[in-house]
Amino acid sequence: MKIVHSEQIEWKRGLEHRGGTFHHRHMFDGEPNTPGNFQYNLGRIEGDFASPRHRHNFEQFRYQVEGTMNFDRNGKMTKGTFGYFPEGAAYGPQSSEGTSYSAVLQFGGASGAGYLSRAQVRAGQSELEKIGRFEGGIFRRDDDVEGRRNSDAYQAIWEHHNGQRMEYPRPRYREPVMVDPENYAWVAIGPGVFERYMGTFTERKAEASFVKIEKGATWKGFGRSVYLVTEGAGRVAGETYAKLSGVQADVGEAPEFTATEETVILRMTLPDLAGLEQTGREPLRTAAE
Hints:
Blueprint: E1 2-5, E2 12-13, E3 22-29, E4 38-45, E5 50-51, E6 59-66, E7 69-70, E8 76-77, E9 82-85, E10 94-96, E11 100-107, H1 118-128, E12 132-135, E13 138-141, E14 150-152, H2 153-162, E15 177-179, E16 187-190, E17 193-201, E18 206-213, E19 218-220, E20 225-236, E21 239-241, E22 245-249, E23 256-269
Antiparallel strand pairs: 1-22, 2-3, 3-4, 4-11, 5-10, 6-9, 6-11, 7-8, 7-10, 9-15, 12-13, 13-14, 16-17, 17-18, 18-23, 19-23, 20-21, 20-22, 20-23
C-alpha cells in the first residue's frame, strides 16, 4: 500500500508531445510492460494547452478538481465532474478555459494493449525528435525520413517504442462518459458511510464511486484501486490524510479510512485483466527516469 500527499510533490512539466503548458504531480505508477500498467497524476493545465481530437489504446478516469476542461463536441468537465474515457473512442479537441486542475488515472484496458510508462514516453519522444517535430499534438516526420508524415503524438511514440503499427481497439463505448456526481443520491453502505456509485465499465470491471465517511466513522476499501481524497481529513494505515492525498492498494490490501473530519473519497478500481497478454511486442528500448 502506498500513501502520497500531493502538497509534498513537486510540480513538473509534462505532455510536451501535446501543445501548450501542462504541469503534473506524479502520484503512482504500475508495472511497465504489463497489460495492467497504470499511471496516476494530478495535472495543472494552462489556457494555452491544446490537444487535437484523438483516441487511445488505453483508458482513463478523470476528476475535475478545479476549473473547466473543454472537449468540444464531447462536452465540458467543470469542477466536480467525473469522466471515463474508453480505449478506442475519439474525443476532443481538448482545451482548458483558463487554468484547470484535474486528477487523471490512465491504465491498460480490456484490449490488453497496456500503457506506456512515463520513462518510455519520454525516451520515445526524444528519439523521434531526431527525425521530426511535435507540433500541436501531432508528430510531423521530416520529409527525408521514410514513414507516415503525420501521426497522433502518442501513437507515434507507441509505434516507435513497440516497432509496429498501432491497432486501435474497437470502442466498447462510442464516446467518453461524463458524470455529474452531485445529481446522485448518497446510499448508505455502512454505519456513517455512504456511496455514490458511478459505474462499472467493460467486461473487465473497472469501477468508480465516491464514498462519504462521517466524522468518527470508518470505511474499509479493497485492493487494486487508487483512492483520491476530495474533501476532509483523517487517518489511513497509520498515517494522516487530507484533501488531495492519494492511496494506492494492490490485490489483497484493504486500506481502512477513519475520518476525523467528514471525508469524501473517489475510489477508482482498476480492471481485472487476469489471463490477458500484452498485445504489443516486447519493447525495443527502455530508459530510466
